[in-house]
Amino acid sequence: MKLRRQKHAKKNMGFYKNNFQFREPFQVLLDGTFCHAALQNKIQIREQLPGYLGGPTQLCTTRCVLKELESLGKPLYGAKLIAQRCEVQNCSHHKDPVSGSACLLSMVEEGNPHHFFIATQDQDLANKVKKKAGVPLLFIIQNTMVLDKPSPKSLAFVQTLQTSQLVPEHQKQSIVQLKEKEGLTKQEGEKRRKRKRAGGPNPLSCLKKKKKTQESKEPSAEKKKRRRKRYRVKTKAVQSVQKNEGE
User: Fold this and answer.
1) d(C-alpha 61, C-alpha 28), whole Å
2) What angle separates helix 63-72 from helix 100-107, to the nearest 10 degrees?
């Protein structure tokens, strides 16, 4: 299991190194929940984390996290001691401190320019971190530290980046200009218009055709009736002539 986890971490670290330019030393932001879980599971973060990530690491936290741990009192006194040994990163909440989760989330805004890792056991914070591209997530499970696989947001970002790199921006503009010169854009528009014009039979025209057939049938019936009447008249005239001759 240990070898499998190391391979898993190596693969994920390669993803962040190649696509988001993560470099050593890796900066890991810890919150109170992660420090508390490490203390309960007897995990030496400073000694074990560099070997797991495959390079030197720098453990960090914020003033908001420290103040939150101080406010929680004795139950999290050990977690506070672990956090105090970390390097304190400057956050934007000097005057108005916020919760530790909100503070760490603000540290990875705007594309995570400082390439921070987020180490937390807070599931709500983890779900919010996964919605941001290029933010690795660390948590503790079964007495070991685990680097989560890249989020769907990170994978989608890398995919769009790779497709845009296949055709540089200046080439895209030149292609558009050439199409305009050759008039290809107009032809494409005309083709689209023709496709829109081409459609099925008009239901109104079908109705008109049906009316014509009905009208054409009516005079034929009248003609038949008229013919029958004429025939009857002729027979009556012949009978009267024959009677006169007999007399």
Assistant:
1) 8
2) 170
